[in-house]
């Protein structure tokens, strides 16, 4: 019988401990997935398959020096053990060539963490039948990915963590005959056919609006509503070092002024790293237990993400952040705006479904620039008038989520990472939509 991912990891760990020499320390990370992928075009299956893979990330430490190597596991115990020994041999040859790492910091506690989130997913045939029934006449293009993701960690100090979670992510677009498109997503850990049908209904409704005559806007400031998907793009930019202790200590964070107390956001804005209950493991790639953190409280910078290395370099207390110090489960607290009231509260302005190609135009000022994408509509007196062509915005976070923020929606959307680069990811965000009094469009 083929070993389970956890048994595979335990076998690897047993071999590693037996091969360790005096004076050596190790950490080892484990990643695995069993993923069903289905690609759609014109609402029909164009490609389907299963990806089963596993890999290990070994770090060897000796005399203040450290080196890492990643290797793929195949499930054959003998061959996997040989790959482990080969990695050890190469790391032992590399270590003497390296300088002593002044910021090497290892968690020497024997912590234990075990999490199994094994909700049942629908049979792929059920998903296909639902798509066929609800979207047969639509030009639906997208990818459905589902299955268990496993993460493990162990150290020579006795720490051991195991995380296994089942999830699905259906990312699709509906194309109009005129070439315009509506982008939609349904993701989570518990499949609800009725919820998917509702998402599809809303996307179909927006698709009809794309057939209306286009509205041409001049550059300027406009009242706007940003959906959770659009907010996810802004949140993603903030994750690029915004909350990082290392970036804040070196002046490379977009939230420098917020954390120094020179600026603040709207009191409506409270952002946390909500690891508990999320798809992400409760331990970092560096071997520390992750914590739920209040990053921003009522518009003011509070905690930051501190990795073990940053803790050693800047004399801070580590709080379980990964080496890249980016949120893995970002959560923006909800507001009081009912979803049913969005268009009426917007009145006249922009309904922005998606943003893309974001970047910083002025990092210290937290000024972002990017483009509207897919279904962006002009609304007058609470009614959609027609689609707006792609436009560029350029505005600061202190405007969008600061003095210009009017309301956040009471309902939030769980957005799971759609990245499959190398492997499916466990990152997520839980976000409301945002109504802003003014958003600056430059062209």
Automatic annotation (TrEMBL):
SUPFAM superfamilies: Putative modulator of DNA gyrase, PmbA/TldD. Residues 219-441 form the Metalloprotease TldD/E C-terminal domain. Pfam families: PmbA_TldD_3rd (PF19289). Coiled coil: none annotated. It comes from the Bacteria. PANTHER family: CONSERVED PROTEIN, TLDD PROTEIN. This is TldD/PmbA family protein. It comes from Pseudomonas shirazensis. The lineage of its organism: Bacteria, Pseudomonadati, Pseudomonadota, Gammaproteobacteria, Pseudomonadales.
């Amino acid at each position: 019988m083929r070993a389970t991912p956890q048994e595979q990891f335990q076998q690897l760990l047993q071999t590693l401990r037996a091969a360790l020499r005096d004076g050596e320390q190790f950490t080892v990370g484990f990643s695995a997935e069993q993923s069903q992928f289905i690609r759609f075009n014109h609402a029909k299956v164009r490609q389907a398959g299963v990806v089963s893979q596993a890999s290990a990330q070994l770090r060897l430490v000796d005399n203040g020096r450290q080196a890492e190597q990643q290797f793929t596991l195949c499930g054959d115990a003998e061959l996997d053990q040989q790959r482990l020994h080969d990695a050890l041999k190469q790391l032992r040859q590399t270590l003497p060539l390296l300088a002593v790492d002044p910021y090497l910091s290892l968690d020497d506690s024997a912590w234990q963490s075990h999490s199994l989130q094994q909700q049942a997913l629908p049979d792929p045939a059920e998903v296909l039948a639902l798509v066929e029934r609800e979207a047969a006449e639509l030009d639906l293009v997208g990818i459905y990915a589902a299955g268990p993701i496993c993460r493990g960690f162990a150290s020579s100090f006795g720490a051991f963590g195991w995380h296994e979670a089942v999830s699905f992510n259906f990312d699709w677009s509906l194309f109009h005959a005129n070439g315009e498109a509506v982008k939609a997503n349904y993701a989570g850990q518990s499949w609800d056919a009725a919820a998917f049908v509702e998402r599809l209904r809303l996307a179909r409704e927006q698709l009809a609006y794309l057939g209306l005559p286009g509205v041409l806007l001049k550059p300027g400031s406009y009242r706007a509503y940003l959906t959770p998907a659009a907010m996810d793009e802004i949140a993603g930019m903030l994750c690029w070092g915004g909350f990082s202790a290392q970036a804040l200590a070196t002046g490379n964070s977009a939230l420098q002024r917020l954390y120094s107390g020179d600026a603040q956001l709207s009191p409506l804005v409270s952002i946390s790293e909500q690891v508990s209950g999320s798809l992400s493991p409760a331990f970092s790639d560096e071997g520390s237990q992750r914590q739920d953190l209040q990053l921003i409280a009522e518009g003011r910078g509070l905690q930051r993400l501190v990795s073990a290395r940053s803790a050693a370099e800047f004399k801070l207390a580590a709080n379980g952040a990964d080496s890249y110090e980016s949120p893995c489960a970002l959560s923006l607290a909800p507001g009081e705006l009912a979803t049913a009231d969005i268009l009426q509260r917007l009145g006249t302005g922009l309904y922005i479904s998606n943003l893309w190609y974001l970047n910083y135009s002025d990092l210290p000022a937290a000024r972002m620039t990017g483009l509207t994408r897919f279904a962006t509509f002009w609304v007058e007196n609470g009614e959609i008038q027609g689609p707006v062509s792609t436009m560029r915005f350029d505005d600061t976070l202190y405007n969008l989520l600061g003095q210009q923020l009017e309301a956040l929606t009471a309902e939030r959307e769980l957005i799971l990472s759609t990245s499959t680069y190398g492997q499916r990811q466990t990152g997520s965000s839980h976000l409301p939509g945002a109504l802003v009094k003014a958003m600056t469009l430059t062209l």
